[in-house]
Amino acid sequence: MKLEDKKRMAAKAFAAFFILMAAAGGLSRAAASMTVPIADTQKYQSGRLNLNLTGTAVVETKEENLVSLVKEQRVLSTARIGTQVEQGDVLLQYDTQYLQKAIEEKQAEVKKLELSLEQARLQGEPQERVAAADSAARDLDLANQSLAQAQSDYDQAFSDSQNAQSQAQSNYDNGLAAAARTKEESYNQAQELETQAQELEAQGETENAQSLYAEAESLRQEADQTYEAAASQAQSEYEAAVSQAQASLEEAEASLNAQTQSQAQAQNAYTSAQEEDAAAAANDQKTQAESSYNQQSIQVDLDLAKKELSDLEKLQQSNGQVTASKAGVVTGMNVQTGGITDDSSYLLLGTGGLQIKGSLQTQDLEKVEAEDTVEISVSGQGKKIQGKVTQVGAGGDGQLAEAGSSSGTSEESQDMAGYFYADIEERAASWGTQVSYSIDKQSGSSYEMLIPLGAVREDAQGTYCLIAESRETVLGTEYRAARVNITVEDKDSTQAAVTGNLGKDDLIISGSTKDITEGDKVRLRDE
Fold first, then answer.
1. Are residues 157 and 30 in the same domain?
2. How high is the pLDDT of residue 442?
3. Whole-angstrom Cα distance, residue 140 to residue 262?
4. Cα separation of 63 and 42, whole Å?
5. Which of 21, 89, 289, 512 could form a disulfide with 39 if both were Cys (CB 3.0 to 4.6 A apart)?
6. 373-378 and 328-333 strand pairing
7. Which of the 8 DSSP states describes residue 518?
8. CATH number of the domain residue 140 falls in
9. How far apart are CA 447 and CA 509, in angstroms?
């Protein structure tokens, strides 16, 4: 076979092969169109979310005033909670007979307190008494005078004793000197007689001499006896004088000691009397202080009783009626007909117009701002009313626990994080009514990535979306679902603001004809 014939046969074989492959590809694509899901895709966009916040609210008054109630009074009738009242309308009626009895009892209490106050004043006055120190001072003065006199008497007795002893000594010395002189004279006479006797003896007159010797000896003996008697007498007189002087001094000393002791006793008595007077004065001062405190305490009770009596009398003048100081709504009370009021009894009057208090979830708390328009639906009324947000605050409210939000899911409805107030027109709704609200606004922030809300998926690994990722195959370009993890920052009813690794040209799968999971082959709707 020629070479050209062989080339022509090879060309025909290749052509037949390509025709067969094209036919197989067509059949394959036709089969895929029957089994591969068609996906709706779009790229992310930037912009703002359209927020629609909904939920429930309660109609309240703007202000709530506490109406004072008189304690220990019987309630004859009260306005019901929710009653609309005008200024001067009766909110509560007391039992006037019970009130009259209370006035009489309070008048008696005031009288008793006034008597107790006067009694306390009298008890606080100091008692009349003679100071013990005055009498003791007089006794001490007399004791001091007696002591001074006794001291003077002692000093005089001491001086007299000294003088008496000196005189006795002088008398004694003089007596001895006189006796000595007399003795000496007698001895001189005896000496003269002996001299004469010697002369006579020398003359031989012995007998006369002996007589003179005997006379001289007798004279000496008599002189000795006289001297001894005089000395003894002088000694006796000296001792008697000294003894008497000492006795007088001892007597004066004993008197001085006695007066000294008496003066010490008088001084002690005076000191004790001063202490007694000081203690009595302190007791008087203490009694006066106690009386003053008692008077002040009674005066406080008396002032309170007089004020309570005045309140009761004013209440009696108003026929036992408690009236509204301004127009409003009775919003609360803890008293009932036939009950007795106490310190905890109260009645609340709502005034200042009406407003609603709506609940907000955590994700909605920062979305609501003052001056936002609120559309309010009142159950049973066909029309809707509008209000303006005046205040937004954090914190849950048990009354609004069932309020909804933009999502409307049961889980989110439990996540109450705050509230808002919005003014409404007078009589647009009744106080205490539960209403529905709706706030439509754009988000305050502009977001870089906005994707369809239907594209957001969630599993055990977190939040994600699927993109259609293209791949080149022998049969041509095909698309498979790929996972991209994202974080949802915010959302509205149609879109979600997200962050994640999404590219500008990524085709985000927002819907499909069949369920799609990661790795599934998909066809684009516009393909």
1. no
2. 85
3. 9
4. 53
5. 512
6. unpaired
7. T
8. 1.10.287
9. 20
For residue 372, what pLDDT is reported?
A: 87
Q: Which residues contact 214 (CB under 8 A, 6 or more apart)?
A: none
Contact (Cβ atoms closer than 8 angstroms) between residue 400 and residue 57: yes
Q: Which of 89-103, 174-188, 273-287 has the lowest mean pLDDT?
A: 273-287
d(CA 370, CA 355): 14
17-57 pLDDT, tens digit per residue, is 555 555 445 445 544 556 899 999 999 999 998 888 888 89
pLDDT tens figures, 346-377: 999 999 888 989 988 887 888 888 888 898 88
CA 400/CA 417 separation, integer angstroms: 11
List the one residue out of 410, 502, 515 whose CA is nearest residue 451: 502
pLDDT in tens, 51-88: 888 888 999 999 999 998 998 999 999 999 999 999 99
Give yes or no: residues 31 and 137 share one domain. Answer: no
Q: Determine which helix (DSSP H) or strand (DSSP E) holds 387, and give its type and residue range.
A: strand 384-394
Give the C-alpha separation, 162 to 226, whole Å.
30
Per-residue pLDDT tens digits for 230-255: 888 888 888 888 888 888 888 888 98
Final residue of a structural domain among 287, 306, 325: 306
In a domain, 145, yes or no: yes
Q: Could you tell me if residue 261 is inside a domain?
A: yes
Q: Which domain-ending residue is among 286, 306, 326? A: 306
> Are the C-beta atoms of 104 and 312 separated by less than 8 Å?
no
Return the closest-CA partner of residue 524 out of 467, 458, 473: 467
Provide the 8-state DSSP code for 371. Answer: T
pLDDT for residue 87? 94
Q: Which of 80, 161, 98, 74 has the alpha carbon at shortest distance from 341?
A: 74
Whether 281 is covered by a domain: the verdict is yes
Asked if residue 395 belongs to a domain, the reply is no
Residue 324 pairs with which residues in a beta bridge? none
Q: What is the pTM of this model?
A: 0.52
138 and 247 co-located in one domain: yes
Q: What is the tally of structural domains in the chain?
A: 2
- CB-based contacts of 388: which residues, under 8 Å, 6+ apart? 371, 372, 373, 374, 422, 423
Report the DSSP beta bridge partners of residue 472.
Answer: 477
Q: What is the mean pLDDT of residues 419-438?
A: 87
Q: Which domain holds residue 13?
A: 1-35
- Find out whether 413 and 404 touch, Cβ atoms under 8 Å: yes
